[in-house]
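Note to self: user wants both folds in one dump. Writing first protein now.
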Amino acid sequence: MGEHHVTLQIDENNMVTSVGDYTTSKNGESFDNCVICGKQTQYKTSTHIDMRSGYVEGVGQLCGICYTKGSSAGREMIGIPKYLVEQYPNDMELGAAVRQYYWENYKNDIPNHHAGYHNLY
């Protein structure tokens, strides 16, 4: 038995206004739309979520642009070295090391309130 996922459109009053978020092509096949930007994705609604890229559990299907590069909603991702996770099994220390890595590699500065984290790695 597989899982079935359906997108719900919810209005400002938290009322469901429609079930499913897809478009139908000329040959009758339906494709999921991106839950952020609304554009049609490459995935048929019949394609299992394990066989897709850009599907977020509990959210729905995202197009390639919204999934990888962000969108007007500000979804962005950073990459961190694997050794940080292996070196810091304590979540608090790992979080500090990730923040330090972020500021050094993405912002080129460490804010003053993170001054105590300078020597983690």
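First done. Writing the second protein, which came from a different request thread.
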Amino acid sequence: MTNKIHSLIGSDISITGDIFYDGTVHIEAKITGSLIANKDKKSKLYVNKSSIIHGNINATDVAVNGKIHGNVYAYDLLQLGSEAFVKGDIYYKAIEMEVGAKIDGRLILCENNEELDLYKIDIESKENSNTIKDNQSINGE
């Protein structure tokens, strides 16, 4: 894959909704929604330090130096810059982290893509469930 940027979403843009992509994407915007890479193609996602993402990241390669409020699923390499902040769990196969990066969540090492996908299924099932509730007690109490 070349270093050519295929898409640039600038800092003067706010997006509400999921973004599906492949190739190299550079984000400088505020996004409420998930960023989802085509796993069948090699891609790279750059989250600039001015970016704020409220949603999950599903990427083959991702470099973060902005803020993410959601889970990160990195199928190949995750790079966290010195200004990165992730409030959510990180599922990864390989990680590089600079001094200053902050994580408010769990780091979960996955041996392969199938294991990573299983974690996604568990979380997505809970979010879409009509019967699983976070504060539900036994016997309705």
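Dump finished. Worth passing along: Residues 128-141 have pLDDT under 50 and may be disordered.
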